[in-house]
Amino acid sequence: TDGRIFTSTNTVGTVTGGSFFSSPFQYSVQFFCALEDASDFDGNYIVTADAWQDYVPGDVVPVEFVSGYTFRILTTNNPYISNPGACYMEVTIDPTNGSATVTSNECLNYPDFGCFDVTGSGSVGTCTGDIDLVLNLGGYTDNAFSLVKQ
After folding, report:
1. CB atoms within 10 A of CB 91
2. 109: Cβ–Cβ under 8 A, 6 or more apart, which residues?
3. CB-count burial class (<10 Å; 0-12, 13-18, 19+) for 79
4. Around 47, how many Cα atoms within 13 Å sit in the side-chain half-sphere?
5. How confident is the model at residue 48 (pLDDT cuts 50, 70, 90)?
6. Long-range contacts of range 67-74, CB-CB < 8 Å, 24 or more positions apart?
7. Given 5, 84, 126, 143, which is the most exposed site by the fewest CB atoms within 10 A?
8. d(CA 9, CA 13)
9. What does the H/E/C string look like for 38-102?
10. Is the pTM of this model over 0.85?
């Protein structure tokens, strides 16, 4: 009420680091569920963010369990590439913390722009099945790509 504004940019580590529990800041609670494998990530996902803009929020993207801690994000619904049935992004989960790494099996071929190999990293919601990645397509880096299970 006195006009002061508090944000993450004007705080100290005791506030942003989580040790200051009685504060006006909102904290998200992170849950971790043990994974036997990546089979929970099989199914259709709804796009919530795509900085590369192949998809708009609400589009559906199929995800396919491979084996172990690996699943594929299929590009069969990608309207901009000329090889949607052949390429996919393979995601490997670290089961100890839910972090993920991404590589494409072949380049995503955009007829007007070129063929881009995909790499990236991020995390998966081990309890919810959410997928949050940051993709690098060729020289284009830091493209957020987020999906929630349908």
Report:
1. 24
2. 81, 82, 83, 87, 115
3. exposed
4. 21
5. very high
6. 67/37, 68/37, 68/38, 69/35, 69/37, 69/38, 69/93, 69/94, 69/95, 70/38, 71/38, 71/41, 71/42, 73/45, 73/131, 73/147
7. 5
8. 11
9. CHHHCEEEEEEEECCCCCCCCCEEEEEEEECCEEEEECCCCCCCCCCCCCEEEEEECCCCCEEEE
10. no
Give dist(CA 47, CA 61) in Å, integer: 7
- Phi, psi dihedral angles at 41 (to 5 degrees): -95, 15
Nearest to 66 by CA among 42, 36, 45: 42
- Residue with structure tokens 């901009």? 80
pLDDT tens, position by position, 6-30: 666 665 555 555 544 555 555 444 5
